[in-house]
Amino acid sequence: MTAYWLAALGLMLVVEGIMPFLFPDVWRRTLAKLAQLQDGQMRFFGLTLMLSGLLLIYWMN
Question: How far is 48 from 7, CA to CA, in rounded Å?
Answer without folding.
Answer: 23
